[in-house]
Design a protein that fits this description.
The protein is an alpha/beta fold. The protein is built from 13 helices and 25 strands.
C-alpha cells in the first residue's frame, strides 16, 4: 500500500510550496483541496478512463493526482497529435472522457466539501497510460501502476538527493513518462513543482523559479548553454535524457559548471533505470551510470540490455484489454537496446537494435555514425537514417544540428578518417533538433527519402 502522496504532504507540510507558476503559489493544503475536488468530479462522471490533451500546467498536476485518488486511469495524449489520431486512440482504448486544456480549469478548481480521510492506495492500482515514441513500429500504450511510479520516483530521488523544500522545474511534456515522473518525485519527496508558462525559454525559467533540480533534453541544454549558462548556477542536479547527448555538449556543460547527470530509461521501465550521480567526473558522463534502487539490469549473450524490477510496467493496453509485457522465461524484459557494463558496473549504451541497417553487405549502426559526427567541431547533434538504394540496399543520410549558424565544412572527409566507407553519410542535411524528447527517426527517414535517390 502507498499513502496518497498529496494528502501525506498536506498533513506534514500544509503551508509549504507545492506548485509554483507565474500566477502564484499553491501550498500542499491548496493542492490537496483541488485534488480532492477533482477526484470527486471524476467519480461523479462514472468514467474509469480519462484522456487529457494538454501541455504541462498546474491544473494537469491536479488531474494527475485526482485520477490517482479516484482510481481512474489517466491517458495523457500529445498536444501535437492531429484530431483524427486522438479520436482513433480514444475509440481504441475506450476513452469516452477526453479533456483539453480548456477543460482543466473547471475540473481542477477547488471545492467546498469538508476534508475527508483518504485511504492508502494499492501498489497494483492502474494509474497512467503512456504511448511510446514508436521508434520501431506503432506506438504502444504502456500502462503503469501506482507502484511502478512510486518505485521509479524513490530510486531517482535517492540518487539525486531530492528532499522536502527543493524545487523541480517541470519543463518536459506530460504525455511522456519522464514528465509524469517529475511530478511523482516531487509529491513523494515534498519538493515544489515549478511550471513555466508555455514558450518560456529554459534559461528564463531557471532564473525566474530558481529550482534545485531540472530535467532537460539535448535541445534544451544546447539552448541554455547558448543563451545564459549562468542561469543554472543554483541547480544541484540536471537529469539529461530523451536521446544521446553529444560529447561536445557535455564538455560545454561541465566547463560551465552545470551539475549534469546522464540517465538511461524507457517507457516500459517507468522512466529512468540507470543514472550517474551529481558531481560525477567527465569519464562517468560518457556512460549512463549505474542501476538505481528497485531495478535490475543485465546484458544478454547477444548484447541486448535486459531489465526487471518494481518499475517494470504492468503491460500494454489494447482494444482487447491489458497485454503483459513479453518477458524471458526467467522474468527479464528485452529492451531492444544494445549495451555493455564497464569495469565499475556503469552502463554504456551502444544503440537501438532496430536502428541498424545493411549498406553494400555491411552493417551500419546509426548511433556509431552519430557519435563520430558529434565529435566534430561545429556539430551539436546528429541523427543518421537509411535511404533505399538500388545499388547498395541502403545508404546513410545525416541530419545535423550545427552548434553555429551553418553546417561545418568537410564533414564527409573528416568522417572518412574514422569510419569505414559504407558508414559515411552520402548527404548532410541542416536540422533544428527534435520537436519532442526523442528524434523522430521514421519521420526523418521519410524526409530523406523524398529528397534523395541513391
Amino acid at each position: 500500500m502507498i499513502p496518497d502522496p498529496i494528502r501525506a504532504q498536506a498533513d506534514a507540510h500544509p503551508d509549504a510550496a507545492a506548485v509554483v507558476t507565474d500566477a502564484g503559489t499553491w501550498t500542499w493544503e491548496d493542492l490537496d483541496a483541488r485534488v480532492a475536488a477533482c477526484a470527486a468530479r471524476l467519480e461523479e462522471s462514472g468514467e474509469a478512463r480519462v484522456a487529457v490533451v494538454s501541455r504541462p500546467s498546474a491544473e494537469f498536476v491536479v488531474l494527475l493526482f485526482g485520477a490517482l485518488r479516484a482510481g481512474a486511469l489517466l491517458v495523457p495524449l500529445a498536444p501535437r497529435w492531429p484530431a483524427a489520431a486522438v479520436e482513433e486512440t480514444a475509440q481504441r482504448l475506450g476513452l469516452r472522457l477526453v479533456l483539453g486544456e480548456a477543460d482543466l480549469g473547471e475540473i481542477a478548481r477547488p471545492g467546498r466539501a469538508a476534508k475527508r480521510p483518504v485511504p492508502p492506495i494499492e501498489a497494483s492500482q492502474p494509474w497512467t497510460v503512456v504511448h511510446t515514441s514508436g521508434t520501431s513500429g506503432e506506438p504502444k500504450a504502456v500502462l503503469h501502476t501506482a507502484g511502478n511510479h512510486a518505485a521509479s520516483a524513490r530510486g531517482v530521488s535517492a540518487r539525486l538527493g531530492l528532499r522536502a523544500g527543493d524545487t523541480w522545474l517541470l519543463d518536459l511534456p506530460m504525455h511522456h513518462v519522464g514528465g509524469l515522473g517529475m511530478a511523482v518525485r516531487c509529491a513523494l519527496a515534498g519538493a515544489a513543482m515549478a511550471i513555466p508558462a508555455p514558450g518560456t525559454g529554459t534559461a528564463e525559467a531557471l532564473r525566474r523559479f530558481r529550482p534545485t533540480h531540472a530535467s532537460l533534453v539535448s535541445t534544451q541544454l544546447f539552448r541554455l548553454l547558448r543563451d545564459d549558462p549562468a542561469a543554472g548556477a543554483g541547480l544541484r542536479a540536471i537529469l539529461l535524457g530523451g536521446s544521446a547527448i553529444a560529447p561536445g555538449l557535455l564538455d560545454a556543460a561541465v566547463d560551465a559548471g552545470l551539475p549534469v547527470c546522464i540517465g538511461y530509461g524507457m517507457t516500459e521501465a517507468t522512466s529512468t533505470v540507470t543514472m550517474t550521480a551529481p558531481g560525477a567526473d567527465r569519464a562517468a558522463l560518457d556512460t549512463s551510470g549505474t542501476v538505481l534502487p528497485e531495478r535490475e539490469l543485465r546484458i544478454a549473450a547477444d548484447g541486448e540490455i535486459e531489465i526487471r524490477g518494481a518499475t517494470l510496467a504492468a503491460g500494454t493496453l489494447t482494444d482487447a484489454g491489458l497485454v503483459p509485457l513479453p518477458l524471458t522465461p526467467d522474468g527479464w524484459f528485452r529492451t531492444g537496446d544494445r549495451g555493455a557494463l564497464d569495469a565499475t558496473g556503469r552502463l554504456v549504451v551502444a544503440g537501438r537494435v532496430g536502428n541498424g541497417f545493411v549498406s553494400g553487405g555491411e552493417n551500419v549502426q546509426p548511433e556509431a555514425v552519430e557519435a563520430a559526427l558529434a565529435r566534430r567541431p561545429g556539430v551539436a547533434e546528429a541523427v543518421v537514417v537509411p535511404v533505399p538504394s538500388a545499388e547498395w540496399g541502403a545508404r546513410p543520410v545525416a541530419f545535423v544540428r550545427p552548434s553555429g549558424a551553418a553546417l561545418p565544412d568537410g564533414l564527409r572527409e573528416a568522417l572518412r578518417e574514422t569510419l569505414p566507407p559504407h558508414a559515411v553519410p552520402v548527404a548532410f542535411i541542416p536540422w533544428d533538433g527534435p520537436d519532442g524528447m526523442k528524434p523522430d527517426r521514421r519521420g526523418l527517414a521519410e524526409v530523406a527519402q523524398r529528397r534523395f535517390k541513391v
